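User: I'm putting together a teaching handout on how multi-component assemblies are represented. Below are the sequence lines for each component of a complex, exactly as they appear in our records. Could you produce the 3D structure of the whole assembly as structure tokens, so the students can see both representations side by side? Please keep the chain order the same as the input.
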Amino acid sequence: MSARIDALPEGITTLADYEPLARACLNPTTWHYLHDGSGNGLSLAANRQAFETVPLIPRPLVDVRQGNTRLTLFGQTLLHPILLAPIAYQRLFHPDGECATSMAAAAQGGAMVISSLASQSIEEIVEAGCQIGVAPWFQLYWQGERERTLRLARRAEVAGCPALMLTVDAPFKQSTLVLPEGVAAENLEQPLMADQVPSGQSRVFQGWMAQAPTWDDLAWLRERIRLPLIVKGVLHPDDAERVVGLGCDGLVVSNHGGRVLDGAPASLLALPPILSRVAGRVPVLLDSGIRSGCDVFKALSLGASAVLLGRPYIWGLACAGAFGVAHVIRLMRDELEATMALCGCAELSQIVQTRNL
Amino acid sequence: MSARIDALPEGITTLADYEPLARACLNPTTWHYLHDGSGNGLSLAANRQAFETVPLIPRPLVDVRQGNTRLTLFGQTLLHPILLAPIAYQRLFHPDGECATSMAAAAQGGAMVISSLASQSIEEIVEAGCQIGVAPWFQLYWQGERERTLRLARRAEVAGCPALMLTVDAPFKQSTLVLPEGVAAENLEQPLMADQVPSGQSRVFQGWMAQAPTWDDLAWLRERIRLPLIVKGVLHPDDAERVVGLGCDGLVVSNHGGRVLDGAPASLLALPPILSRVAGRVPVLLDSGIRSGCDVFKALSLGASAVLLGRPYIWGLACAGAFGVAHVIRLMRDELEATMALCGCAELSQIVQTRNL
Amino acid sequence: MSARIDALPEGITTLADYEPLARACLNPTTWHYLHDGSGNGLSLAANRQAFETVPLIPRPLVDVRQGNTRLTLFGQTLLHPILLAPIAYQRLFHPDGECATSMAAAAQGGAMVISSLASQSIEEIVEAGCQIGVAPWFQLYWQGERERTLRLARRAEVAGCPALMLTVDAPFKQSTLVLPEGVAAENLEQPLMADQVPSGQSRVFQGWMAQAPTWDDLAWLRERIRLPLIVKGVLHPDDAERVVGLGCDGLVVSNHGGRVLDGAPASLLALPPILSRVAGRVPVLLDSGIRSGCDVFKALSLGASAVLLGRPYIWGLACAGAFGVAHVIRLMRDELEATMALCGCAELSQIVQTRNL
Amino acid sequence: MSARIDALPEGITTLADYEPLARACLNPTTWHYLHDGSGNGLSLAANRQAFETVPLIPRPLVDVRQGNTRLTLFGQTLLHPILLAPIAYQRLFHPDGECATSMAAAAQGGAMVISSLASQSIEEIVEAGCQIGVAPWFQLYWQGERERTLRLARRAEVAGCPALMLTVDAPFKQSTLVLPEGVAAENLEQPLMADQVPSGQSRVFQGWMAQAPTWDDLAWLRERIRLPLIVKGVLHPDDAERVVGLGCDGLVVSNHGGRVLDGAPASLLALPPILSRVAGRVPVLLDSGIRSGCDVFKALSLGASAVLLGRPYIWGLACAGAFGVAHVIRLMRDELEATMALCGCAELSQIVQTRNL
Ligand SMILES: Cc1cc2nc3c(=O)[nH]c(=O)nc-3n(C[C@H](O)[C@H](O)[C@H](O)COP(=O)(O)O)c2cc1C
Ligand SMILES: Cc1cc2nc3c(=O)[nH]c(=O)nc-3n(C[C@H](O)[C@H](O)[C@H](O)COP(=O)(O)O)c2cc1C
Ligand SMILES: Cc1cc2nc3c(=O)[nH]c(=O)nc-3n(C[C@H](O)[C@H](O)[C@H](O)COP(=O)(O)O)c2cc1C
Ligand SMILES: Cc1cc2nc3c(=O)[nH]c(=O)nc-3n(C[C@H](O)[C@H](O)[C@H](O)COP(=O)(O)O)c2cc1C
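Assistant: Of course. Below is the structure of the complete assembly, with chains in the same order as your input.
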């Protein structure tokens, strides 16, 4: 790990204060890679818009002196329901990269999810978290074929990751980012799968999609994975049903932070129909657009079991490495507690009941 | 009282004209303390937005030559339904502080509500109003424990306040304002209740909320208070029901001017379901977002008995002390009268009937 | 009439092109007097917004070669349904004042409505129009008492006005405009009614409203007026019913261009319920927010018999006197014809049928 | 054809990137002629707004490795459903004019529709496309009388156009564009029909509309045309019914890109009721507002058989002639393929089923 000592920036009182500081720390290309949505940014904006329409009703005078934010998820005990979403190439944002994130998440009693495109080795990142007590989860991208994908999953399992999250909503790369020298997907087998397409064929259908996973591949993988397997990137209730039917342990309702299909609905809006269909059979998590503890409360009030936080923790990473990430988590959790207190909830499980107005 | 002579600013024709003048009078920190909402300002904006959606239908040709704006509230006769909301530390805004507000309210035939965090003594403030004829009410914050709270309530009663308003929606301080030398909460017992929390415990749940009132505390207090007791900060009909059930004399539907839980609904939108539940058993007042006499009319048209005006009277205070506050009230009342006249209402009680379109 | 020769401004293709030119011709005070709405401009904006929500469905391939825009209204034959609304003190905007407007309206085969607050004598204005062939109507403000009001109405009748329009929605003056030397309400009896109010009484209720007309006054007036009597400023169906019940000949659904009660609904939105109540017994006119021939079509498609155009013709007056007013009317009428043609209507009476989608 | 060699502009990744480049290539008058809508631009904005409200639901894990975008339309096989809309006077935008467009469309396996107001001869334009393999269609404007119109249609047929599209929604010219020297409607018979109107008559009704086609004219034309005849500019279901009833082969739901009747509904919103009425009897195409491959997907998801792309291909033409047009089509098609892949569609015919959420 780097010997660089980071100090927390001054004058930060909310998460939003980090955004301009992070922007100032990063070169414009990196900032846009982090921040932008795809296309015209419709889904990116829809994510935020959706949270603004969920009202919170204060419920004063409730006794919440025993309040806490603990939960158990896929067998792990967490101090709060805010996971750190898988984000690729974190050494783009800070030399300490994913290890800093792992330490910070563990220090705050929660878990990060390591991206398949992590810029440090899975083993190092797991180690950074385990020193403090909580192991990170691993996010799996399909590796173009079954065995290669299974090898990557197994490596994460051996390294000590307690859960696997298969991301299915981004079957091809859209970003045009050119990685700087020294930043790479450290855990992928070389050479990468070729995506050359014979002329006259479609780069999309016969190229990229020939390397994307199918429902059959998911079934195949499920049978070979002992760890809890969570599918990330579900927005349609029929797909949620099928994921559960294949024996997966959970799912993440997500539009990938508005970065893939522009026009995809806000994941918060997609959540309720999926929850009705899943009907409690597995935990349903949510990401895309979470920017405050109030937003965490809102997602849980609609029925999510936990949330994944994306870009905002990278703001903290960019500004102040592990300290910054830990601070972002702490701010979120404080806001979540305050919102619970004001809405009369002493336990996470009470939050969903506030919807019955 | 200060010997400073304030002149009314020139060219003011509506309340809104005071806002930029007040901003210019105050240092930015004080202005932001006064003006800002919490979080992203969703509730602050929702308050204004809500008023814009209530239409007014002009009803010409009605004979309103006997028109007036009088009402009786909790036994007091008031010349108009515009109370001045409890606002802390008024010496931040003008050296004459709460005494100026008290005089102005009385001079205009209405009442102010003294904050628990007033920067002058309750007795002085009451005196300033009584000289002119109307005594201010007192707003009670829970003082961390029962007896301390009761002592504060009793002091206000003895000083001559005719009604008590217990604010329940702000169980902990969110503002980061540092009070300048010479401005303090003059009426609170020293030392303040500690809010230290053992490490590993939550500053929110085990800290602040351990000092917040509960329904039991409210019941306890109600039994010990002879004055009319009004609960401020209710937004959920179930809570309104419970407040009435405990024998309180009234309630204020309020989101605290958008200063506490960002995402709380506009109080104007929360009003109708609460009114249906309360069904006339006690008067229901409204605050948060009132900026004109039209807004007062709108609140009354939905069924409020009276309103509390917040930030705008502080604009007047900042610009011109007692004269400014009196002028703000006069402008509001003139607009209310004009709106009544244009809508064919000669009495406040007719306003609610204009809703039956 | 003035000897000043006005030339039409260059490069005008739509009504909207006149607005910035007019602004440039007028001093800011006069411009704001003309342009602004009351309060926060809610009703002013609502007027425009309302027109934007009425869709037009093009109906190609209809044979409209016999098309025209003629109508008969209160016994008068007009070449088009665009009346010029009563606007006070037109010498503020151009030295030729109301006479220019009267000539232009007549030249275009339509009628203006002379304001009670005209800055030239009724007789001169009527004369200016009659030379060309069409006499202007007269708008009556209540003159504080019955006989004085009747005298003014009689004067207009004698001068040759074929219809009277009693404006009831503006019982008191809200503008703070100070009239420049030489511009005055030429047709009002001196001295004006006093609006002094004994101290302790309300300037609104006991002052202004004591001089406003009531339903009884309207009944009294109706009995004494032989000309068609139209009531301007109705927004509530109950009031429309009562106006018709008193034997008036028509009414104007109007919010006075958003200049009186801020928060009053857009008149276009108030139109349909009024039309259902009136059920064809008298013609219903509309004003407030008309800015193009499309808007005229929209108003007629909802059921209005004709419209009154307000501010836009004053833009023409300010820029180029009678020529400008005539040009504005011509542009509006061309747009109305084009809209009719595109929507497959050859007669005004077919427009209302386009609503049955 | 011009010897000018155009290079593709650098750094273009989406269609939208072309817009500012095109603006920079064109003089402001030409740009405004291309870009502006009529009136206040309500319909222009509504077109875009409508697409933003159609959500796309990603459907991961579907096997789309056999995916393609082929379709058969009016007997022609096309590689994708993106036709190039008829746009007048293309030599305004690039010296190679319509011939460049024709080549590019053919090279990309699709068809352009030649405007009646093309600035090159029909024969040349057809030839430019046929060299590569696909013949352009021809758009017919009514030529003021039957025989003249039929002569123009026959000329296009003889030249080799496989389909005719009669535009009925623009019976008169609204643009004030003055054509520069050397750019003209090359294919119209001289002299043009006169549009002089005797004084006292209406330029709209007795002038322009006397030269516009009627339902009878359409019936007359239909009987005399062997080629597939498609009617462009239908927004009302009754008109769609009548078009089908007369034996036409298809229709284009269009508001002419917001260029004719300002206030006409977005064509995307007009599509569903028309599709229900047509009930599959003929293909229904859509244009107005298509700006990306996502938009094509959305139109097809609502039931359109294909779309016409308007202004955006002119951006490509202005920047880089035939290469630019081909690039624009390629970008659109790539986006369409990506959207299909992400939404789990391997064939165009599956797109409409994604609506059954
Ligand atoms: C820069 C960046 C890189 C990302 N990389 C991955 C990734 O490698 N794997 C993955 O499953 N999701 C990835 N995501 C998506 C996130 O996991 C998450 O779904 C999204 O950021 C949530 O939205 P939010 O940023 O609005 O909170 C990435 C997101 C960002 C912003
Ligand atoms: C600067 C400031 C201080 C306040 N202090 C108190 C207080 O001490 N006690 C209380 O009950 N409410 C307090 N409030 C809330 C007001 O009583 C009132 O609910 C709110 O200002 C109404 O909204 P408005 O400002 O939009 O009119 C305060 C509000 C402001 C703006
Ligand atoms: C400057 C001005 C003066 C007006 N004066 C009168 C008046 O004297 N009498 C009257 O009945 N209405 C008066 N009106 C209202 C107009 O008759 C009409 O209702 C209004 O202008 C219509 O709205 P528009 O301006 O949006 O078209 C006035 C309006 C303006 C803008
Ligand atoms: C500059 C321009 C010229 C046009 N000329 C014609 C024309 O000659 N014939 C026709 O049927 N439509 C014409 N149109 C309309 C287009 O065919 C098409 O309906 C419209 O551009 C689609 O909307 P979009 O530009 O938003 O894609 C023209 C459009 C533009 C922008």
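A couple of points students might notice: Strands of chain C lie at 71-73, 76-78, 82-84, 113-114, 137-140, 164-167, 229-234, 250-253, 284-287, 306-309. DSSP finds twelve helices and ten strands in chain C.
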